[in-house]
Amino acid sequence: MVDIILLGGPGAGKGTQGELMQSWLPIPRVSSGDLFRDNLARETELGRKARGYMEKGELVPDEITIGMVASRIAQADCAKGVVFDGFPRTVGQAEALDRLLREMGRGVDVVLNIAVDAGVLLERLAGRWTCSRCGEIYHRLFSPEKVSGVCDKCGGELFQREDDNRATQERRILVYQEQTAPLEAYYRSKGLLVDIDGERPPAEVGAQIRQAVEAAL
Ligand code: AMP
After folding, report:
1. Helical segments of the chain, H only
2. How far apart are CA 168 and CA 172, in angstroms?
3. Residue 39 and residue 201: Cα distance in Å, rounded?
4. What's the confidence (pLDDT) of residue 120?
5. What distance in Å separates the CA atoms of residue 126 and residue 165, rounded to the nearest whole number?
6. 140 in active site
7. Residue nearest to atom 5 of ligand 1 (CA)
8. C-alpha–C-alpha distance, residues 31 and 82, integer Å
9. Is 89 a catalytic residue?
10. Is 11 in the pocket of ligand 1 (CB under 6 A)?
11. Rounded CA gap, 170 and 167, in Å?
């Protein structure tokens, strides 16, 4: 059993790396952002509550977020562990996750702190395109698709996330610094934090991550 947290600002590469990990680690990636976007698309009550916060780049309140993640990790496929992507994002969420995992006889095993300078985050977010079908992520400059607007992997149509506009991007980075960055100290004091240089190319970041996870197992 292994429970891993991917920590890092918006655009740090959590989604990309979480996907890469799936090839060698047989546990699901649980992305709170993806869960919210799925609820938005299905126009659920939860999606309706989350929409305004997401559009502004603010965090959805803890009680809503924690409840959503708690029901996701109670599902059978999460019994052997989870790669958490984008959760927790506040100290309150981290404490709740500790409680939830403890009740399941588990605990956080390692926290991968994917460090990327704020200026680089902005540059990455500005060029980001996502596949509407399979979720693959592209960048206009750094990793463009072969045929404009079409996913290389599945042929799906690429789109820019609604929260990938300049004002929201800046807000999301600030919110990260104010509300999420304190988690670095929270997990460092528990001896769980491993620093990853997120400014290296994706494959190198992936190798650092694999080494850190294998060392923690
Ligand atoms: P992400 O895809 O992780 O960048 O998340 C997109 C948006 O969903 C964020 O800007 C928040 O509005 C919301 N969100 C995702 N995860 C969380 C979380 N753990 N706590 C609060 N809000 C979240």
Report:
1. 14-21, 32-41, 45-56, 62-73, 91-103, 118-126, 166-175, 182-188, 202-216
2. 6
3. 32
4. 95
5. 7
6. no
7. 33
8. 10
9. yes
10. no
11. 5
pLDDT of residue 217: 85
Ligand 1 lined by 84 (C-beta under 6 Å): no
Q: Is 176 in the pocket of ligand 1 (CB under 6 A)?
A: no
CA of 68 to the centre of ligand 1 (A): 12
Q: Averaged in consecutive runs of 10 residues, what is the pLDDT profile of the chain (217 residues)?
A: 96 94 95 95 96 94 98 97 98 98 97 96 91 91 94 95 84 96 98 97 96 94
Question: Residue 86 Cα, ligand 1 centroid: separation in angstroms?
Answer: 6
What is the structure's pLDDT at 144? 94
The CATH number given to 2-117+173-216 is 3.40.50.300
d(CA 142, CA 13): 13
Task: Give domain limits for the chain.
Answer: 2-117+173-216
Instruction: Give the distance, in angstroms, between the CA of residue 53 and the centroid of all CA atoms in the same chain.
Output: 17
